[in-house]
Amino acid sequence: MYCLETGNAVKLPYGFGALVINKRKPAKPKMGEDGKLIIKYPIDWDATNREGRYIYHMNEHTDGFKCKWYWLRSLAKLKLTEIWNVKMIKGNSQLLTKYCRDEENQYYLKYRELNLRKGTHK
Fold first, then answer.
1. How far apart are CA 28 and CA 81, in angstroms?
2. Is residue 67's pLDDT more than 90?
3. Which long-range contacts (CB under 8 A, 24 or more apart) does 113-119 make?
4. In this predicted structure, what is the pLDDT of residue 89?
5. What pLDDT score was predicted for residue 117?
6. Which structural domain range is residue 36 located in?
7. Is residue 115 part of a domain?
8. pTM of the model
9. Domains in the chain: how many in total?
């Protein structure tokens, strides 16, 4: 709950690192080498089946951001962290979705965009 409501990282016990909620905007659509449009947004299959053409989730309720649980393995005191994986249970992922869709409190504004590729995070 602390991580969801504040957006701060939660330190895991026994040197397992930390959990944080990362928000990012998906890559913008671009043209591929073969001239086809490449769109990396997820497909809304319900709307696609109704319309007869691809309809994408644009995440308008979060201004285009996608929120996801992320394990900061660089803070872990374990060896070989690259072979370990953290997967949140369905209830936690659904709770994150609920918090992101809450228009009254707009929790998604508290979550940070982390630069996880370079390993720099605060």
1. 31
2. no
3. 113/22, 113/23, 113/24, 113/65, 114/20, 114/22, 114/70, 116/22, 116/70, 119/74
4. 92
5. 62
6. 2-109
7. no
8. 0.73
9. 1
